[in-house]
Amino acid sequence: xxxxxxxxxxxxxxxxxxxxVCIVTATELKTPPRMASYVQMxxxxxxxxxxxxxxxxxxxxxxxxxxxRQEYELSYTDGEGYHFMHPETFExxxxxNAMVEPVKNYLIEGQKYTILFADEKVATIELPASMILxxxxxxxxxxxxxxxxxxxxxxxxxxxVVQVPxxxxxxxxxxxxxxxxxxxxxxN
Length: 188
Fold this sequence. Notes:
SH3 type barrels; CATH 2.40.50.140; mainly beta; 53% strand
């Protein structure tokens, strides 16, 4: 474990705070006039799932935790959670429903995902920048409603609802930005 100055921490880094392994979810350097600069940050505990808001001076530090990224394939879900399998070792990793909640609208069985481990525990699931998903439900566009930039809601195979252009119909595959769930374009 190495001490890392809080000014060098970024979103996604793992640190130890009050004996708990935590993931940095947000960090911002504040420099008020005529005052010492400080770092305002949010960290999420892996053990409890609680979010802690910290305000630390820019010269303070936290213990960093070793991070490990591995690719796993989503096998199935059940009452325990989401089961991911390593493609080479066939090791099964179960990720709790609570931990999957922020990304569940992008999880498809058989798809590969990068799982981030901190201290040998699952920290988070990293999503690609965009994903191709199938439209399962979409209302018909209204005839004559052809002014530019007109959108309608469409439900995707994972349950995610996205605003799409009027020409998008059920069965189409579209590209969606995972950061904010926005429509990027039609996929082949």
